[in-house]
Amino acid sequence: MIKIAPSILSANFAKLGEEVKEVEAAGAELIHIDVMDGHFVPNITMGPIVVEALRPITDLPLDVHLMIENPDAYIEQFAKAGADLISVHVEACRHLHRTIQLIRSFGVKPGVVLNPHTPIESIQHILEDVDFVLFMTVNPGFGGQKFIESVVPKIAALSKIIKERNLNVEIEIDGGITAQTIGVCAKAGATMFVAGSAIYNQENRANALQQIKAAGLA
Ligand code: DX5
Ligand code: ZN
């Protein structure tokens, strides 16, 4: 099972509703929303009002990726705005367990995100508490960057741990995902894939999405 989560970071913000509907019709499983604060990452994007505006536009789960300092202060707002999944960076959370419980307390699926250099040992003791782990395969901050291949062994290693411990944790990959890069991640055990530029920067988005999904299943 492969789930594709188009990242609206690469969409046309002047017509965001249509952009979301287009990828939903094309077979997307989730909508990925990149929240950046200009502190944790060197870019500023969108806040809860965008989640709230998109909520009535689509039936798909809204996958909110928080690339912000002090995520605890904003989780309630994103949950009430309609987020279905919220992921936080291990590098931004001083009390990760508390943050994960806070996300769950609003009925939202919690995920933890690892930057490319962050070892999986940092999340060994939170795996029982999360619904998914998101591996960054670019340095967070911008769409359209090149896939960092050296993350793949981390994906495989975590996948092995999840199986050994018989946990119900999904693996999501974010950054540089294309029809060329998805396969190696799927083989390593990932099932959810964010794709921004590889879908939204293409003339035929439906075709691009289906090609990425097919490559992930191959
Ligand atoms: C990067 C974001 C990604 C980004 C992916 O910091 O977290 O979700 O939109 O864009 P692509 O697929 O173009 O690498
Ligand atoms: Zn993202």
From TrEMBL:
Key words of the record: Carbohydrate metabolism, Cobalt, Isomerase, Manganese, Metal-binding, Zinc
Positions of substrate binding: 7, 65, 141-144, 174-176, 196-197
Cofactor binding notes: Binds 1 divalent metal cation per subunit.
Binding site for a divalent metal cation: 32, 34, 65, 174
Listed GO MF terms: D-ribulose-phosphate 3-epimerase activity; metal ion binding
Cofactor: Zn(2+); a divalent metal cation; Fe(2+); Co(2+)
GO cellular component, one term: cytoplasm
Active-site annotation: 34, 174
InterPro entries: Aldolase_TIM, Ribul_P_3_epim, Ribul_P_3_epim-like, RibuloseP-bd_barrel
Signal peptide: none
CDD domains: RPE (cd00429)
Task of the protein: Catalyzes the reversible epimerization of D-ribulose 5-phosphate to D-xylulose 5-phosphate.
Family from the record: Belongs to the ribulose-phosphate 3-epimerase family.
Protein name, per record: Ribulose-phosphate 3-epimerase
Phylogenetic lineage: Bacteria, Bacillati, Bacillota, Bacilli, Bacillales
Gene: rpe
